[in-house]
Amino acid sequence: MNKLVEKELIKIAKDTGIPFNPDMREFVIPKSASKPSLDSLSVNTVYKIKIADYVINPPDTFSLANTWNNGTKPTLKEQKMVVVQILGKMVKVKSLDEEWTGWLPMKSIEQFSIIGGV
Q1: What's the pTM value of the predicted model, to 2 decimals?
Q2: Of 9, 11, 14, 16, which has the maximum CB count within 10 A?
């Protein structure tokens, strides 16, 4: 094994806690706990959702609030929401933590966990 590569792998192993054996020709990185797929979102299901900052504090060039949500936007970064409808890569949600119902791009959902059904 190249000494430079070995040195870097040893450094990675030390930083991550992943075991490394220089006699082996492979470095196995275990798969981390997989993030649930946004494809698994279901209508009429309650989720705890973390929304990307660009939806809550949109730049001037971002038109989601005006185009999809009648000029409104969510104010809380994390909240309980019910999925009302799914349309392509957009999700219509109703917040249970504030008076807001509107559309979110799926890619703006940073994290989510299922709480239950409606």
Answers
A1: 0.67
A2: 9
Domain ranges of the chain: 1-30, 38-117
**How does pLDDT run across 26-83, given as a tens digit for each residue?**
767 666 655 567 778 889 999 999 999 999 999 988 899 999 999 999 999 999 999 9
> Per CATH, the architecture of 38-117 is what?
Roll (2.30)
